[in-house]
Please model this.
Amino acid sequence: MMEDRLFNKAYDYIKDKIDSNCWPPGTKITEQLISEALFMSRTPIRTALLLLEEEGLVKSIPYKGYIVAEKKISNEGLLERLELIAGLIMNYLQYLKLNDITLDHHAFEEILEKQVEYLHYRDATGYFNNEYRLFEIFMSESDNQFLKKVILTAARDIHGTYSENSDLMDEERYQNEAKLLALYQEFSICIRDKDYDKMGEHILFFFETLKESNDSLAQ
Model:
């Protein structure tokens, strides 16, 4: 849809400016300037800014527009984002079930095979870079581009914080990741069998495990 395409274009443009530090914290953002830069109306820009504000990347100032927010996310904020994603994913599972949709089990399984190798050799860089691809495959069948963007963006931010400075040489962290990998393998079975109710149970446990596996999220 045209509206989704314009929203995605506006969202990606603003987020890229923030992520690249082209617009550092405190930078004023106006719908008019973005509209002129992207040659589009303000409506999709306004929607993109609302989502970015929800994600904590921009902050609205009454009667003045928006500014780029400080990038640091608090532990409490991270936990709230986990709960937000969990709720949205449960709704997505219902959508998959009601529409009898089949996800790409083979692609999911191929990534898991690499994950087993990365974990075995304690290759943290390969493991965490590859892990996010599982989320992308899982969300690939969503027909709601706005919802898909919300979930994947929040998942990417949390995953980045969760995996930052991770060391699989640490035995406790290694055991936690082995536990998470076992859950991913359970997800794969559910995807193959289209057992989305069972997958929902695993996902709720997954988020609890994720919280406990990183000190910064567990506090």
